[in-house]
Task: inverse folding
C-alpha cells in the first residue's frame, strides 16, 4: 500500500533523493517456488496417498515393523518377569526408561512449536512442514508413554496414575511432580491429536471429493481387470473413510471463518501447553533434592533442548521425504535454512545452560553441587558427557555457515548427531546424579541390559511404522494452508509472475 | 421431493473476482448463501458480511470448566475425601495443584474449541445437496464458487441467474435438493 502512494506522488526533489539513496526493493520470498497453481498443489499432495505405495515404502515398512517387534519382545520379557530385567539397581533406579521418556517427549515439542508458536507468529513457511511435524509429535508421545507406563512394574495397575480411587479408596496424591507429569503428558497427547485432526478436516474433505469424482467418472485405466477393480474398491474405501473423518466439511466461507478462529485458538492453547509440558517433565528432576537435579534453570533449559531435538528430528524426517516425493517446490531451501537456524538458536541456549550449570555449581559454593558437576565432566560417565557436549554444543554452531545449511546430506547427518547428543543429555542428567549420590559406599555404575536396549531400539521402529502409516493414509501437508500462502489466494489481485500487483 | 431446488451455484475465475462477487451478493441483501473455496480467503468474512466467529465462547466455557474441575478435584481427593499427609505439605493450596489446574484448563478449552467449531459449522453433517453437483466437487481442487439457496426470500430462478452472471459468475446451474 505504501509503495502505491510513493509511486503516485513523487515530486522532483523526492526523485533526486531516491536516486541518491538507491533504495533496495524488498522482495518477499515465495513459499511455493516455480509459480505452481492450486491444482498442482492438490495433486502433488493427494497423489502421495492415492497412488500405489512406492517400493521404498514397503522396504521401510518391513524394516520398521521388524524393529518395532523388538519393543514388543522387550515389553513381554519385562511384564512376564519383572522390572528387574532392566539395568536398574540401587542407587540408580531411574535409568534408560526415564531417559527414553524425556527423549521422546522432547522430540515431539518441535511439532507443536511449528504448528502453534509459528502460527501465532504468522510464519507462513510453517505450512508445508506442520502436518508432518504434528504427526511426529503424536507418534513421539506414543513412544514416550510406553516407558513410564511399563516402569510402574505391574502395568495392570497403571490406572492408579489416574484420578481414581484404588482398592483402599485412596486417591493419587497431587503434591508429586510425577502426578503432574501424568496430566501434562496426557493433555499434551490429547490436544496434539485434536489440533492435528482439526487441521486435517479440510484436506480429508479434498481426498473424499477426489475419490467420489473418480468413482462417478468411472475411468480406471490399469493393466489388468484385477488391478482395475482393486483401484475402484480403494476409492470406495476412501469415499467412506475420508467421508466419515471429514465430517461433512464442504469448504464454505462460513466453515473457514469458524475453522480459522478455532485454529488460532488451538494454537494459542498449545503454545502455553508445549512450554508447560517440558517444564513439568523437568520438575520430575528439579523438585527432587539431588545435586545436579535441584536447579531452577531446568524448565527453560529442558524446553530449549526439547525444541532443539525436535527440529533435529523434523530435519531427519523431512529431508529424505522431500527427496523421495520430489517436494522441493514445497519444502524449499528457505524452510531448511529456517529450521537450521532454529537448531542453532536453541542449541546455543542449551550450550549456555550447560556452562551456566557449571558456573552456578561453583558460584553456589555447595560442595555436593560442585562435586556433581565435576563428576559429570571428569567422572566415570565423562565419555557420555563429551558425546553430549560435542553433539549439542559444537554441531549446531556449523549452522552459522550458509554452505553447511545448503548441503542437505550434511544437514541430515547433523540432525542425527543432534538427536544422539540430546539422548545423551538426558542420560547424563539422570544417571550421573544417581550413580554418585551423597554416600560413597552406595555408589554404583549403571549399565543397560539387553532388554533395555531392545525396548528402546524398538521404539524407533514403532515411530517409523506409525509415520509410514501416516504417509500412506493421511495428507502429508495441509493443502488449504499452502494454498492460502500462495499469491493466487490473495483476494486483492496478483499477476502471473507470482508477485502482488497492487 | 425430487423436483425441489436447493439453490443455484456459480463459479468465478480467480480469488479477487470471488471476493468482489461476494461483496456484491452481500450488498444485494441475500441471506442464505455462501462462498466455496478450498482455502480460507483473507478478509472473506467481511466481504460476506459475517460477524466474528463465536467459537471463543466455547473455548472460554471449556477452559473455565477445566480450571474449576482441576481445583475441585485436587481439593476433594487430597484435602476432603481422604487427606494424605505428604512431606509436610498443606492438604490444599492453590500452588501445588497448579499444574493440574493448568493442564485441565487447556485440555477442556481445546475440546471446547473443537466442539465449538463443529457446532458453529453445523457439523458433522451427513448430507448436503451441494454434493449432488459435479462441479461443486471441483471446489476441492481449484474451482471457486458462490451458492445462493432457494430458501432465500429473494431467490428467483431467472433474476438470480442474471444477477450471478452480472457479477462475473459462469457455469451457473441449479442444484436439486
Result:
Amino acid at each position: 500500500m505504501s509503495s502505491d502512494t510513493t509511486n503516485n506522488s513523487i515530486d522532483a526533489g523526492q526523485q533526486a533523493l531516491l536516486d541518491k539513496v538507491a533504495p533496495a526493493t524488498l522482495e518477499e520470498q515465495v513459499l511455493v517456488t516455480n509459480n505452481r497453481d492450486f491444482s498442482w498443489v492438490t495433486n502433488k499432495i493427494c497423489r502421495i496417498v492415492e497412488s500405489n505405495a512406492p517400493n521404498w515404502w514397503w522396504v521401510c515398512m518391513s524394516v520398521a515393523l521388524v524393529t518395532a517387534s523388538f519393543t514388543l519382545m522387550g515389553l513381554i520379557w519385562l511384564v512376564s518377569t519383572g522390572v528387574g530385567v532392566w539395568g536398574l539397581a540401587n542407587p540408580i533406579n531411574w535409568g534408560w526408561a526415564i531417559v527414553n521418556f524425556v527423549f521422546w517427549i522432547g522430540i515431539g515439542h518441535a511439532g507443536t512449536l511449528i504448528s502453534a508458536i509459528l502460527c501465532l507468529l504468522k510464519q507462513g513457511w510453517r505450512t508445508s512442514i506442520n502436518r508432518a511435524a504434528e504427526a511426529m509429535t503424536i507418534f513421539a508421545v506414543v513412544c514416550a508413554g510406553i516407558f513410564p507406563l511399563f516402569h510402574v512394574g505391574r502395568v495392570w495397575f497403571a490406572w492408579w496414575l489416574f484420578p481414581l480411587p484404588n482398592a483402599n479408596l485412596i486417591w493419587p496424591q497431587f503434591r508429586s511432580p510425577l502426578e503432574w507429569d501424568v496430566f501434562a503428558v496426557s493433555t499434551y497427547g490429547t490436544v496434539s491429536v485434536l489440533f492435528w485432526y482439526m487441521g486435517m478436516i479440510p484436506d480429508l474433505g479434498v481426498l473424499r471429493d477426489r475419490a467420489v469424482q473418480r468413482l462417478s467418472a468411472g475411468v480406471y485405466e490399469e493393466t489388468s481387470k484385477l488391478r482395475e477393480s482393486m483401484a475402484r474398491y480403494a476409492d470406495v474405501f476412501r469415499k467412506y473413510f475420508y467421508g466419515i473423518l471429514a465430517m461433512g466439511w464442504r469448504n464454505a466461507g462460513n466453515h473457514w471463518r469458524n475453522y480459522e478462529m478455532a485454529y488460532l485458538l488451538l494454537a494459542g492453547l498449545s503454545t502455553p501447553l508445549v512450554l508447560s509440558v517440558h517444564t513439568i517433565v523437568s520438575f520430575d528432576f528439579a523438585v527432587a533434592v539431588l545435586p545436579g537435579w535441584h536447579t531452577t534453570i531446568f524448565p527453560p533449559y529442558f524446553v530449549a533442548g526439547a525444541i532443539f531435538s525436535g527440529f533435529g528430528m523434523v530435519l531427519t524426517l523431512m529431508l529424505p521425504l522431500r527427496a523421495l516425493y520430489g517436494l522441493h517446490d514445497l519444502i524449499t531451501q528457505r524452510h531448511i535454512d529456517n529450521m537450521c537456524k532454529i537448531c542453532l538458536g536453541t542449541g546455543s541456549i542449551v550450550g549456555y545452560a550447560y556452562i551456566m550449570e557449571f558456573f552456578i555449581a561453583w558460584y553456589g559454593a555447595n560442595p555436593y553441587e560442585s562435586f556433581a558437576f565435576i563428576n559429570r565432566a571428569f567422572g566415570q560417565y565423562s565419555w557420555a558427557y563429551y558425546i553430549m557436549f560435542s553433539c549439542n554444543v559444537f554441531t549446531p554452531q556449523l549452522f552459522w555457515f550458509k554452505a553447511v545449511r545448503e548441503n542437505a546430506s550434511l544437514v541430515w547427518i547433523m540432525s542425527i548427531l543432534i538427536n544422539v547428543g540430546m539422548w545423551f543429555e538426558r542420560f547424563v542428567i539422570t544417571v550421573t546424579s544417581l550413580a554418585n549420590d551423597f554416600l560413597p559406599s552406595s555408589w554404583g555404575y549403571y549399565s543397560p541390559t539387553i532388554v533395555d536396549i531392545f525396548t528402546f531400539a524398538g521404539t524407533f521402529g514403532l515411530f517409523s511404522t506409525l509415520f509410514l502409516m501416516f504417509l500412506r493414509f493421511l495428507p502429508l501437508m495441509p493443502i488449504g494452508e499452502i494454498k492460502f500462502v500462495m499469491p493466487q489466494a490473495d483476494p486483492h489481485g496478483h499477476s502471473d509472475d507470482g508477485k502482488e500487483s497492487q | 421431493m425430487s423436483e425441489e431446488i436447493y439453490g443455484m451455484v456459480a463459479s468465478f475465475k480467480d480469488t479477487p473476482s470471488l471476493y468482489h462477487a461476494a461483496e456484491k451478493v452481500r450488498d444485494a441483501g441475500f441471506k442464505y448463501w455462501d462462498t466455496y473455496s478450498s482455502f480460507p480467503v483473507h478478509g472473506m468474512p467481511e466481504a460476506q458480511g459475517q460477524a466474528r466467529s463465536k467459537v471463543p465462547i466455547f473455548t472460554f466455557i471449556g477452559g473455565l470448566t477445566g480450571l474449576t474441575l482441576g481445583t475441585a478435584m485436587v481439593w476433594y481427593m487430597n484435602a476432603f475425601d481422604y487427606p494424605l499427609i505428604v512431606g509436610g505439605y498443606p492438604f490444599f493450596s492453590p500452588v501445588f495443584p497448579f499444574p493440574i489446574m493448568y493442564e485441565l484448563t487447556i485440555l477442556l478449552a481445546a475440546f471446547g474449541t473443537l466442539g465449538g467449531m463443529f457446532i458453529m459449522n453445523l457439523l458433522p453433517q451427513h448430507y448436503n445437496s451441494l454434493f449432488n453437483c459435479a462441479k461443486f466437487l471441483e471446489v476441492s481442487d481449484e474451482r471457486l464458487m458462490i451458492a445462493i439457496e432457494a430458501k432465500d426470500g429473494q431467490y428467483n430462478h431467472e433474476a438470480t441467474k442474471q444477477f450471478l452472471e452480472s457479477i462475473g459468475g459462469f457455469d451457473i446451474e441449479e442444484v436439486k435438493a
Summary: The first helix of chain A runs from residue 2 to 8. Chain A has one domain: 54-474.
